[in-house]
Design brief:
189 residues, alpha/beta, seven-stranded mixed sheet, two-stranded antiparallel sheet, 5 helices, 25% helix
Amino acid sequence: MTAEEDRQRIMGFNIMSDYPVVSSGITFQEVPGKVAVYFELGNCQQGCDGCHSPHLAKCTETKGFHEIFKHAEEKIDSGANCILLMGGTTNNIPHESLVYLINGLSRLAPTALYSGRDDVEADLQLALNTGLSYIKTGSYKKELGGLDKPTTNQKFFKKEYLISHTYSEARADAYMEDITRESFQSCTN
């Protein structure tokens, strides 16, 4: 048993050893103001009508955490300043494994997640309780459009902090700010 496996056993985690990565690359438009190394996660179970990424419904290859981390690290060292996971909440990835991936990657750079589920509250809690800096929530609904449409059901949130202090202590409380309109719809008609 490796030291990492022993640590996971002691902590009670059943961390997925492999993640269904369909592809990876660099994007300039998915996270506002960021050059993001992205990982498209396969085995999506959402089945959105008009899905722009139907290739994510299946995945025949997997990558381990360390392989994903190393690839992200190389891209960050080459100029990327954000990491984007496209999928994860609708891909049958165990919650603990997704949290492990997010928290590990967020040590390298701000990390974003494109969730395809319609449970905004669960997505916001995931973001607040992990190293996520950004989260897109909501399935794609063809009749409502994507983030660039004012009619969309999808929302894009950024983690912000409210700093408060008294004479004896200071604290920072995290909250999620909806930046959909200002970041994606400001240039549309």
